[in-house]
Design goal:
Layout lengths: L2 E12 L2 E12 L3 E5 L6 H9 L6 E8 L2 E4 L5 H7 L1 E3 L12 H8 L8 H6 L2 H20 L15 H13 L5 E5 L7 H16 L3 E5 L3 H7 L2 E6 L2 E6 L5
Parallel strand pairs: 3-8, 3-9, 6-7, 7-8
Antiparallel strand pairs: 1-2, 1-4, 4-5, 9-10
Length: 243
């Protein structure tokens, strides 16, 4: 199988605290992999290192997209996103006062080509690109189950719908690897089942998924493999039932 993400001896220290210690594992193309462990195990720190929010103390992170292999350890978040990695956050981070549609369009920013000058004078190329962005954003809203709600203000939506909006915004960047940080947190059972269906559909579109999750029904229901962290160290890896 083709390795999409390969983490090799990843270590992250915060002063005297070692949040991650020599973590190594690989995620293959089109997999859904769960990253689990107790609070404080280092799961979100690992996400932050992959996404470029935190710079690893040592170790390597390699990402393959379109046949090209990249070393991404220490790269800035916007560079990581442009290479094909998108993420959501444990605490929802939307532009609350913007519309649902505008939130998704912002996610497409890394794929745009219009210049500042083109935007100011509204060239034909810029207008065509803006039209395409709007169409694409509406398609992502429909994909996550928010069709027809583009003009609503993001902060007015229910918690579960905000979660889906955040996923739509992440998908708008056209990732080949989507990282979801506790996507089922705070959801009721029906919302969790809908989320599982959505993640399957994302995978079926060719996107590899890595998720942090504490809801074991979600983990057991969708993950092909599970990686377990504890106190910043690799503890176990394998099929969910075996782990």
């Amino acid at each position: 199988m083709t390795a999409v993400l390969k983490i090799d001896k990843l270590t992250k220290n915060f002063g005297g605290l070692q949040a991650l210690q020599d973590i190594s594992f690989t995620i293959n193309q089109h997999e859904i992999v769960g990253l689990i462990g107790p609070n404080g195990a280092g799961k979100t720190t690992l996400f932050n290192c992959v996404a470029g929010i935190e710079k690893p103390t040592s170790g390597e992170i390699r990402f393959t997209n379109g046949g090209t292999n990249h070393s991404i350890a220490g790269k800035k978040p916007e560079k990581v996103t442009s290479l094909g990695i998108a993420r959501t956050f444990q605490n929802i981070r939307l532009f609350d006062n913007l519309t649902v549609l505008d939130n998704v369009k912002i996610g497409r920013h890394c794929r745009t080509h219009a210049t500042f000058f083109g935007a100011v004078i509204r060239t034909k190329g810029q207008q065509a690109e803006e039209k395409a962005i709007t169409q694409s954003a509406n398609e992502y809203l429909e994909f996550v189950g928010l069709k027809g709600r583009g003009e609503e203000i993001a902060s007015s939506m229910s918690y579960g719908d905000q979660r889906r909006l955040e996923i739509a915004r992440a998908l708008a960047s056209a990732p080949s690897l989507l990282m979801l940080d506790e996507p089922a947190a705070g959801m009721n059972p029906q919302e969790s089942r809908d989320l599982m269906d959505l993640i399957f559909r994302i995978r079926n579109k060719g996107v590899t998924v890595l998720l942090i999750e504490h809801d074991m029904k979600v983990v057991m229901g969708i993950c092909q493999r599970v990686v377990v962290l504890n106190y910043g160290m690799w503890l176990a890896e394998g099929e969910p039932k075996a782990v």
